[in-house]
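Postdoc handover notes: sequence design on the structure in folder B. Input tokens:
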């Protein structure tokens, strides 16, 4: 099976080698332990683990292979992980009655990449976003759970689905905006190049305004991965990436997902 490292350009290979040489300084400046492992991969300049190269190239690609900028980004990200306690977040518990219908991981796409679903409609904003720190920790935990499903050899990215069904203009209030802005910034700063495709489905008529707001905080590389569709185009768009057997019934597939069925985001699959 072809590994991701075989797709690296010569420039990327050279940049990875240079960034790897910077790892002792990155570890020292960030304050993490000398034997620190990022997503289960030891940050060792002498490592021959190809997974390390794949992680490093993510930071390089986020900075157009500028080694100095990638070094700074990785250093800041490790500092954030230390301060945010990101490495212990998988052991934390959150109220399932609040978050089970907000987001979850369900199966994979045609390339075996995990798919995360984020549901924004019909929420009690104060209950979900009112405690911003709790929401952020839950959302980062969901991201870290998705990363656990990557092998960093043949799979290093995931699919995200953002469903706006049942959302109203009034529900996109200051609390929701603040949460959205903060999560977007955290993801861009600390999880570079993890996104393969992001579907925005069941987008309301006023959705353009929301996307313009969100886009302010996104790189051009990230925005290029967006697929925005109304209810009528959901099934066809998603079936291009996700097999019908793995696609939830709500979106026209055959897979039953309790979180979606119980939420009542759609009684029938979208029309073709």
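Designed sequence:
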């Amino acid at each position: 099976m072809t590994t991701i490292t075989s797709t690296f350009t010569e420039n990327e290979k050279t940049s990875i080698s240079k960034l790897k040489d910077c790892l002792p300084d990155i570890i020292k400046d960030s304050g993490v332990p000398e034997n620190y492992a990022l997503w289960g991969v030891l940050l060792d300049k002498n490592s021959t683990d190809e997974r390390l190269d794949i992680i490093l190239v993510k930071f390089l690609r986020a900075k157009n292979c500028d080694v100095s900028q990638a070094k700074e980004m990785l250093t800041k990200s490790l500092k954030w992980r230390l301060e945010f306690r990101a490495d212990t977040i998988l052991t934390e518990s959150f109220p399932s009655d609040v978050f089970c219908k907000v987001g979850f991981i369900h199966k994979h796409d045609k390339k075996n990449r995990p798919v995360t679903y984020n549901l924004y409609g019909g929420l009690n904003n104060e209950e979900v976003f009112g405690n911003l720190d709790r929401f952020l920790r839950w959302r980062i935990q969901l991201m870290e759970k998705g990363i656990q499903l990557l092998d960093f050899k043949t799979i290093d990215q995931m699919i995200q689905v953002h469903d706006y069904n049942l959302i109203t203009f009034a529900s996109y209030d200051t609390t929701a905006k603040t949460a959205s802005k903060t999560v977007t910034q955290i993801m861009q700063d600390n999880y570079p190049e993890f996104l393969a495709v992001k579907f925005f489905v069941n987008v309301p008529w006023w959705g353009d305004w929301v996307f313009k707001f969100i886009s302010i905080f996104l790189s051009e590389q990230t925005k290029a991965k967006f697929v925005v569709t109304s209810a009528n185009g959901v099934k066809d768009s998603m079936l291009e990436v996700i097999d019908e057997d793995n696609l939830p019934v709500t979106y026209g597939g055959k897979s039953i997902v309790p979180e979606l069925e119980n939420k009542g985001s759609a009684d029938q699959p979208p029309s073709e």
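Context for whoever picks this up: The CA atoms of residues 181 and 216 lie 10 Å apart. Don't rerun without checking with the PI first.
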